[in-house]
Automatic annotation (TrEMBL):
Span of domain ABC transporter: 4-226
One GO term of the biological process aspect: carbohydrate transport
Protein name as it appears in the record: ABC transporter
Keywords, alphabetical: ATP-binding, Cell membrane, Membrane, Nucleotide-binding, Translocase, Transport
Lineage top rank: taxon: Bacteria
GO MF annotation, one: ATP hydrolysis activity
GO cellular component: ATP-binding cassette (ABC) transporter complex, substrate-binding subunit-containing
Segment of the intact protein contained: 1 to 226 of 397
Organism: Actinoplanes utahensis
Length: 226
């Protein structure tokens, strides 16, 4: 059974523009899939339909065995990491990561355990008392990932998470995201327009062009073989 399954997904916006054209894709449990393609090809639209932030015009979106076409984001148990981080400026790193647990009224000692575990994985242990304004871009990105981790979601969804970082940091964060994904074994969908990211991250690459899924395969299959 696929963790995320898309069947003939179409998205037509209110103005009639068809951003996603009959896309079908099965993502296996624990798999890391990269959605790549030029700006405007429909990557974010597809990702937002997985999370539930955008209605599906036609087709079926399945998470596990559940058809989620009409399900609100809060009922899907997915964790999205945005490129602008969406951190709370008045909260410490600890409380930013803890936020989803606080919403569920998780007991304090469990919050501490979960946050410390995520912080260790993301090398944030020394920064837990700081506020987002005093962190580097890479550190903020890690806090956003920490918050996704403690949610214990069924899948991670990344929308161009590294595009605000400089080249060196991007490389570093790529390695970290790959390592974290393997350690957690969590199903991951990652949107990027960056070919290098597509080739170095993930198990499979899905290439979108003008809303059409053109190719799906490993980096080797797509970029190295004649
Ligand atoms: P990508 O993430 O690949 O850059 P998007 O999914 O953001 O592409 O957008 C795909 C296409 O849909 C673009 O041509 C964009 O202009 C169009 N689009 C995105 N959002 C809307 C909207 N709310 N209304 C109409 N068209 C939109
Ligand atoms: P509310 O609508 O109750 O004010 P939010 O808009 O912050 O709260 O979130 C509503 C629900 O959407 C949350 O309970 C959560 O399940 C889901 N949600 C919030 N942020 C994310 C995210 N980054 N990724 C996936 N789901 C999210």
């Amino acid at each position: 059974m696929a963790a995320i399954s898309m069947r003939n997904i179409v998205k037509r916006y209110g103005d009639g523009y068809q951003a996603v054209d009959n896309v079908s894709l099965d993502i296996a449990d624990g798999e890391f899939v990269i959605l790549v393609g030029p700006s405007g090809c429909g990557k974010s639209t597809l990702l937002r339909m997985i999370v539930g932030l955008e209605d599906i015009t036609s087709g079926d979106m399945m998470i596990g065995e559940k058809r989620v076409n009409k399900l609100a984001p809060r009922d899907r148990n997915l964790a999205m990491v945005f490129q602008n981080y969406a951190l709370y400026p008045h909260l410490t790193v600890f409380e930013n990561i803890a936020f989803p647990l606080r919403l569920r009224s998780t007991p304090d000692d469990e919050v501490r355990e979960q946050v410390n575990k995520a912080a260790a994985l993301l090398q944030l242990t020394e920064h837990l008392d700081r506020r987002p304004a005093n962190l580097s871009g890479g550190q903020r990105q890690r806090v956003a990932m920490g918050r996704a981790i403690v949610r214990q979601a069924d899948a991670f969804l990344f929308d161009e998470p590294l595009s605000n970082l400089d080249a060196k940091l991007r490389g570093q964060m790529r390695t970290e995201i790959a390592r974290m994904q393997k350690r957690l074994g969590i199903t991951t969908v990652y949107v990027t327009h960056d070919q290098t990211e597509a080739m170095t991250l993930g198990d499979r690459i899905a290439v979108l062009r003008k809303g059409v899924m053109q190719q799906v395969g490993s980096a080797r299959q797509l970029y190295e073989e004649p």
